[in-house]
Specification:
This protein is α/β, with parallel strands linked by helices. The chain has two domains: 21-234, P-loop containing nucleotide triphosphate hydrolases (Rossmann fold, 3-Layer(aba) Sandwich); 240-302, Alpha-Beta Plaits (2-Layer Sandwich). It has 13 helices and 15 strands. The protein has helices spanning 59-66, 88-94, 110-120, 126-136, 140-143, 152-164, 182-197, 209-212, 232-238, 251-261, 282-285, 287-290, 305-319; strands spanning 21-30, 33-43, 48-52, 74-79, 82-83, 95-98, 170-174, 201-206, 217-222, 225-230, 241-249, 266-268, 271-277, 294-301, 323-324.
């Protein structure tokens, strides 16, 4: 009996020989809603890569697809050389995942949680637990405390310790500093940079633009699409815009007038920020919005990362395409 040859699936990437993460046309639909739309990404080993965008942008869906928690509706993804659809077990054995929903057991101490997760990973030596706790800055007192009684920042570090306990090469962190105070955010990002310096690849989601600038590269996301990919500095420079900063009274009217003419206008305190493309004279350009206002100052500055993000949203809305840098 002659056997009919069957088509062979595309082989996975060799482990550690290429990108830590690679996606091609990755799409996820929930009934009639498209949560993630045709995403192409590559994350290189050892980098801190940010998924940046507002709530509902598709960041969590993308992370769950890459962690093999969800299956793609269309397209493919490889994590550490493993296809997330055909080899989810291999993916989950080799990664660490810190979800947006807090993942530790509140009624257990930190030490009890770590022992539990160590058992799940097949047994983690005590020396490894001590090493991870030292890296994330958990004290002996922290380890003996019930998770429910910890400050938010310490709980987040404990959750990171649990995700990193088995020494994964790749960490997925979903909004890890949500609810953490500014000092705690700074400390957490310093910790991530220490992990990356030791060779861990980190894929982190955030809606905080100042945090995005701490990443090596970022993907700007909105409405399930990737708008642009690049380093924060290159993405800012690629806009080609300057920002006119207007301090005037009444600032509310100036903002409303400017917003009707330039939708990308943002408000920072009582200062109105107007992105300007090209070499237009800001005083001439803004004259209609400033008519009748008392202008204290008008100056041009380089765009913030938030200014750049708004510009990318407007640009891709106009062109219907993604921008890569």
């Amino acid at each position: 009996m002659t056997r009919t040859p069957t088509a062979q699936p595309e082989p996975p990437l060799e482990a550690h020989s290429g990108p830590a993460v690679r996606t091609r046309g990755l799409t996820r639909r929930f009934k009639r809603q498209t949560a993630l739309d045709d995403v192409d990404l590559e994350v290189q080993p050892g980098e801190i890569f940010g998924l940046v965008g507002p709530n509902g942008a598709g960041k969590t869906t993308l992370l769950r697809l890459l962690c093999a928690i969800l299956r793609p509706s269309r397209g493919r993804a490889w994590v550490l050389g493993h296809d997330v659809a055909t080899d989810p077990g291999a993916v989950q054995r080799e990664i660490g995942y810190m979800s947006q929903a807090f993942s530790l057991y509140q009624e257990l101490t930190v030490a009890e949680n770590l022992r539990f997760y160590g058992d799940i990973y097949g047994g983690v030596p005590a020396s490894r637990q001590h090493e991870v706790c030292s890296t994330v800055g958990l004290s002996t007192a922290d380890l003996a405390t019930l998770v429910a009684e910890l400050p938010t920042g310490v709980r987040q570090r404990a959750a990171l310790a649990a995700a990193a306990l088995h020494g994964p090469q790749l960490l997925f962190l979903d909004e890890p500093t949500s609810g953490v105070d500014p000092a705690g955010r700074r400390d957490f990002w310093a910790l991530m940079h220490r992990l990356a310096a030791d060779g861990t690849t980190i894929l982190v989601s955030t809606h905080v633009m100042t945090e995005a600038e701490r990443c090596d590269r970022v993907a700007l996301m909105a409405a399930g699409k990737v708008l642009a990919v690049g380093s924060p500095a290159s993405l800012r420079a690629a806009t080609g815009i300057a920002v006119a900063v207007v301090d005037a009274e009444p600032w509310q009217r100036v903002y409303e007038e400017a917003k009707t003419r330039w939708p990308a206008v943002t408000l920072h305190g009582q200062s109105v920020h107007v992105p300007i493309e090209g070499s237009a004279d800001p005083e001439v350009l803004l004259a209609p919005a400033l008519a009748g206002a008392r202008v204290r100052s008008l100056r041009l500055v380089e765009p913030t990362f938030e200014d750049a993000f708004v510009w990318y949203i407007r640009s891709t809305t106009r062109t219907g395409s993604s921008l890569r840098r």
